[in-house]
Amino acid sequence: SVVPNPYIVSSNYFNESPGNHLLRFTRLPKKCDISIYTISGEFVTSISHYDSFDGNEWWDLRNGNGQEVAPGLYIYVVESSGYDHIGKFAVVR
Question: Which of 14, 30, 56, 61 has its CA 20 to 30 A from that of 46?
Answer without folding.
Answer: 14
